[in-house]
Automatic annotation (TrEMBL), chains A, B:
This is Pantothenate synthetase. It is an enzyme of class 6 (ligase). GO terms for biological process: pantothenate biosynthetic process. It catalyses: (R)-pantoate + beta-alanine + ATP = (R)-pantothenate + AMP + diphosphate + H(+). Keywords: ATP-binding, Cytoplasm, Ligase, Nucleotide-binding, Pantothenate biosynthesis. GO terms for molecular function: ATP binding; pantoate-beta-alanine ligase activity. It is found in: Cytoplasm. The reaction proceeds by a bi uni uni bi ping pong mechanism. Its EC number is 6.3.2.1. (R)-pantoate binds at Q52, Q144. CDD domains: PanC (cd00560). Gene3D superfamilies: HUPs, Pantoate-beta-alanine ligase, C-terminal domain.
């Protein structure tokens, strides 16, 4: 892959990278379109990265369908799909990790302690292998995008990072490969995330600024559905991810909810108009 | 610097990087010659990297002479000297670090706990800024070279790492910017490092294989000089840096000795001929 990318770069071609864990959905495809609009060719990586899963997480269960993924990439005009095996990515004496000191100490990083070290490391590796000019990541994984923007700037990777908006099912559920885990009953309950976001946005629109009030009402929305368990409901600064008590500027509202045994996330940036 | 390097690369030029902390001596110049022999142009970085110094170390005192360094680089035909300020390298929200899990737990890493995290981080940044095809490091800092080889392979940097042999003063003292700290009396004592290496090589040549014996005799050589304090005398595997008890293959002998208040290092790889 690196030899191919070096060859493309020698020809002056601009490479757009879309890193994924496969089991592609419309969300991933929208990122490929963004990459294609800003580069001469698109590379998609498909790699279920073991170092970003904790020991009790769903590494083994993570859904896979390489045949279908390749067909979707082909249809979308992708130039190359990079599908390494874990043993290609992490050799025998492997021991180097990229970690961030602050951004992981919030939101998903709290319940997934090794997750962002794994993400930062594998993304650094993908940047060095694929040598992209731009790389596109979904905004559903808001914290991941923040971590990647930060590490790209901090480590001076010559890569422009772009975010792609969350793509939703017609009823509002944010697309995720993990939605495949949901039973039909859980699928109905999973709507609580987008409902909580929508209700909160409406409350802010009506003038509510107190995060404690907004949080309590989001909790109510989520618990109104069966089989739901809240990991976090967070309101925070979109850059630093530090918690805020009052909505007085652009504020990230981020949710992680277990529906049955499936952990789902969703988010939106709340904006308050000038009074 | 990155824009200049991207420009050079677009022209198909191969970049050789020699990262330094300045106060250049013949050792550094020999690395520039190696770089020049394997690349179309040479970039030297001069940066006394704060993140690789511990709180009690010699960051402030580290010798500097940029005027002289620039003149030496010019004479050597260097294409660019990259001399960032710490605030250019580490911005306000800086928080990303590259660290290795095993190689730093030996030799200098034991008495300098943050050192190799700082080295791995700044070298990763320099690779991303200067975008070299090859990078040359001195073998005097043997563990540093091992760390950099490892992280380059682990993180897939498209950079070939080369080591340059230790350059010595006519009496055997390994060249080091820190030699400038030595009083004339200490300068004489500092010979104990190269003497210990030479004596050990002779003993191995004569058939001694027991590390305990070799270590005791190296200690004696070092303590025969005044103002010397041993940080470590180590015999280890040159790849993993793990300690060995017996010389039965290529073995790194590495020394760190304080002479007065100046900490000096030196090393050699011992080789045993076929019997």
């Amino acid at each position: 892959m690196q030899a191919q990318s070096l060859n493309w770069k020698r020809q002056g071609l601009r490479i757009g990278l879309v890193p994924t864990m496969g089991f592609l959905h419309e969300g991933h495809l929208s990122l490929m379109d963004i990459a294609a609009a800003h580069a001469d060719l698109v590379v998609v990586s498909i790699f279920v990265n073991p170092t970003q899963f904790g020991p009790t997480e769903d590494l083994e269960a993570y859904p896979r369908n390489l045949e279908r993924d390749l067909a979707l990439c082909r249809e979308r005009g992708v130039a190359a799909v990079f599908t390494p095996e874990p043993s290609d990515v992490y050799g025998q004496e492997y021991q180097s990790y990229v970690s961030l000191e602050k951004l992981p100490n919030h939101l998903c990083g709290l319940s997934r302690p090794v997750h962002f070290r794994g993400v930062a490391t594998v993304v650094s590796k993908l940047f060095n292998i694929v040598l992209p000019d731009i790389a596109v990541f979904g905004e559903k994984d808001f914290q991941q995008l923040a971590v990647i923007r930060r590490l790209t700037e901090d480590l001076n990777f010559p890569v422009r990072i772009m975010g792609g908006p969350i793509v939703r099912e017609s009823d509002g559920l944010a697309m995720s490969s993990r939605n495949a885990y949901l039973s039909s009953e859980e699928r109905a309950s999973a709507l609580c995330l987008s409902e909580a976001l929508k209700n909160t946005a409406a409350e802010v629109e009506k003038g509510e600024r107190d995060v404690a009030v907004l949080k309590a009402s989001a909790e109510k929305t989520i618990f109104s559905r069966p089989h739901t368990e809240i990991d976090y409901i967070a309101f925070c600064d979109p850059q630093t991810l530090e918690a805020v008590d009052l909505i007085d500027g652009p504020t990230l509202m981020a949710l992680a909810v277990k529906v049955g045994s499936t952990r789902l996330i969703d988010n939106q940036v709340l904006r308050v108009g000038l009074a």
